[in-house]
Amino acid sequence: MKLLKRGILGSILFMVLIACQNKPKKFVIKGWVEGEVKIDSVLLRTEIDYDTKIASIKVQGNTFVIEGELERECIAIVLVKGKEQKFQLREKMILENDTYDFIVKNDELKIRGGDLNTAIYGYKELSEYDELIKNKDKVLDSVFKDYESFKMDKKAVTNARKASDEALDKVWGFTTNYLENVIKGNTTTLEKLYALSILVGSEEFGFEKSLSILDEYEKKLGNHPQISFLQEEMNKVLEVEKIQKKLSIGAVYIDVEADKEDGTQLKLSEIITKNKYTLLDFWASWCGPCRGEFPHLKKAYKKYHDQGFEIYALSLDEKREDWIKAMQEENVPWIDVVDHEAYNGKAGTDYAIRGIPMNYLIDSEGKIVGKRLREWALDEKLEELFGE
After folding, report:
1. Residue 388: its pLDDT value, please?
2. Which of 174, 200, 222, 294 is found 20 to 30 A from 34 (Cα to Cα)?
3. b or e along 250-288 (b: 16 or more beta carbons within 10 Å of the residue's beta carbon)?
């Protein structure tokens, strides 16, 4: 069943076309807050260069106006910070010299307006999408309500994730269908470019295919910063994949060296030669999923440490105090070291780390015997290796 009727997309794009006839020379964002929530500030940054601030405003009361001028359109990241509640809302939009409405209500930010923004994110205004979002939120609230009580129960976690994945897949399916219609339909090259920016790396638009499509867009749009940004990012991903293929199961590990708490350095090779199996585990204090792995790591460590299993946990925390605090909070019994250069450090680049948690299980001869062993996968692999 088609998730989106072409007639709806056509109507949205027709309205955008009419609006294009009277383009303003600056962008004007009118915002207001509904309900009890109070906000402190609104900040807009560019996706291409996150350190570049487009505009910001301190909010007094329930309304605000942000104005500015852009040389050309861009993907902007909008950050709305709360006052007493200390919350932060984050959304993306296509920002150009046009008019917009920002509506902040409870824990949601709605962005409306702008020709390109409406063309790309118009699916968010459709009732079917709204119903899918409500269903997704309802499912997630239901299946993970008591997660702490069953997070170590494999069957319960598997069932919860199956239900949540199904709800999330419906939302993503609707979104992809809409954006694929933009890319394949009778739309402008600029609209196709920004739709592709969201779908890059998806099943339909893998990195190599997307690079080929961008070459075509470049012939029509010239040296466009969004094209250059996507090309650079995708080539980085392809290079990472190339490195990670060299570190597949059966390959020899790459030695790393990092700082212990006392400031001295410790090589991974020193640990590998002393143990039957060593888990090189990349993590950081700010990484929720990494710390969510600790109960599984502690269980495995307690069971197999005396039999020759060790963990060399390498933190990618940039700040020493964050790393120390996390170690104290988690009370980890294994070896913990840090490289404050994080992803740009030697270990991060040698292993092409672009996301954590990430781990490698290495035998005493230095061969990789497992990787990405999360949750029960580590227990099952160690049980296989130790024969229990």
Report:
1. 65
2. 174
3. eeebbebebbeeeeeebebbebbeebebbbbbbbbbebe
Q: What is the pTM of this model?
A: 0.85
Q: Which pLDDT score, from 0 to 100, does residue 23 have?
A: 64
3-class DSSP state for residue 304?
Answer: helix
Q: Is 305 exposed, middle or buried (0-12, 13-18, 19+ CB in 10 A)?
A: middle
Residue 19 has pLDDT above 80, yes or no: no
Distance (Å, whole) CA 337 – CA 268: 10
- Asked whether 29 and 93 are in contact (CB, 8 A), the reply is no
Name the phi and psi angles at 5, rounded to 5. Answer: -80, 135
Residue 290 amino acid letter: C
- As a whole number of Å, the end-to-end CA separation of the chain is 49
Q: Classify 380 as helix, strand or coil.
A: helix
| CA angle centred on 275, ends 272 and 278, rounded to 5° | 55
**Tokens found for residue 355:** 């996301």
Q: 190 is written with which tokens? A: 């600029």
362 neighbors 272 (Cβ within 8 angstroms): yes
Q: How confident is the model at residue 328, as a pLDDT?
A: 94
Of 180, 187, 178, nearest to 116 (Cα)?
187
Q: For residue 33, which amino acid is it?
A: V
Asked if residue 167 lies in contact with residue 136, where contact means CB atoms within 8 angstroms, the answer is yes
Average pLDDT of the chain? 92
